[in-house]
Specification:
Structural class: alpha/beta
Protein name: Aldo/keto reductase
Organism: Pelistega ratti
CATH superfamily: NADP-dependent oxidoreductase domain
Distance between the termini: 33 Å
GO molecular function: oxidoreductase activity, acting on the CH-OH group of donors, NAD or NADP as acceptor
Keywords: NADP, Oxidoreductase
InterPro entries: AKR (IPR020471), Aldo/ket_reductase_CS (IPR018170), NAD(P)_OxRdtase_dom_sf (IPR036812), NADP_OxRdtase_dom (IPR023210)
Oligomer: single chain
Number of domains: 1
Largest sheet: 8 strands, parallel, barrel
CATH topology: TIM Barrel
């Protein structure tokens, strides 16, 4: 496994297992399978409603807690009392600390929530703090006005939404980039796309492995999800090949220039999130 060093020298595995859209009743087994496959970085969120099951898997795994890197995210309706919500997350996860806590969305009172994250990090209940779905300017604003820069920004990055300028800006600020939806949630039959499939065949790899490798070579942390144990093992097996410049040039031609999953710059998206109720968090 390769690691990225965060701004405070903490090490984070570059491959993580995400549990978004895994039903609570299936989460424990999925996380156990992921840990058995070799994952040590697990990514959940309050809004996923499966923190408790992630915690149960961690407890049953037999792996020393210090070997695991656990991330959760504060949902925006909890921003006015992020501290209390994180205490609930700690209880659900069954752990004394969380390795990384992110603000899940760039809306509502992000500064109030950020102050709580800073305080909890100082107290040692959180090891690292960051954001998700923020633009580079939003990251800079939060960091500069609070005097504490986010260490991570988790954003959508995949061959159809490549965001090279934003990635460069974040990395120049010392903010580690994590990619959610690296496989574009399967849109446009990405796993059989002729460009990606052609590269995969050349290296005797899968399309998913090519996408992961493309991200890793940009120093981007990859959050992948699979419900199949054999796929979990396969998705970790990406450190024995490299892409050449011709491969990367072909992948660049796939960029559509915007998300086709969720547009955070669309006022309708803001209204959707403002009215989106998540119970039990």
């Amino acid at each position: 496994m390769q690691y990225i060093q965060l701004s405070d020298n903490q090490q984070i595995p570059m491959l993580g297992f995400g549990v978004f859209q895994i039903a609570p009743e299936h989460t424990e087994q999925a996380v156990l399978d992921a840990i058995k496959a070799g994952y040590r970085h697990i990514d959940t969120a309050q809004a996923y409603l499966n923190e408790k099951e992630v915690g149960q898997a961690i407890a049953k795994s037999g792996i020393d807690r210090k070997e695991l890197f656990i991330t959760t995210k504060v949902w925006l309706t909890n921003y006015l009392d992020a501290r209390a919500s994180i205490e609930r997350s700690l209880a659900k996860l069954g752990t004394d600390y969380i390795d990384l806590v992110l603000l899940h969305q760039p809306f509502n009172d992000t500064f109030a929530a950020w102050r709580d994250l800073i305080a909890l990090k100082t107290e040692g209940k959180i090891r690292a703090i960051g954001v998700s779905n923020f633009t580079p300017s939003e990251v800079a604003s939060l960091g500069l006005y609070s005097k504490v820069m986010p260490q991570v920004n988790q954003i959508e990055v995949n061959p159809f939404h490549q965001r090279p300028e934003q990635i460069a800006q974040l990395q120049e600020m010392g903010v580690a980039v994590q990619a959610w939806a690296p496989f574009a949630e399967g849109m446009d039959d990405i796993f059989n796309h002729p460009v990606l499939k052609g590269i995969a065949d050349k290296y005797h790899k899968t399309t998913a492995q090519v996408i992961e490798r493309w991200l890793i070579e940009q120093n981007i942390i990859v959050l992948a999800k699979s419900s199949r144990a054999e796929r979990m093992v396969e998705n970790l097996n990406i450190f024995d090949f490299s892409l050449n410049e011709e491969d990367k040039k072909h992948i660049r031609t796939l960029d559509l220039g915007q998300s086709h999953i969720f547009r955070h710059d669309d006022p309708k998206a803001v209204a959707f999130l403002a009215n989106y109720e998540v119970h039990g968090i």
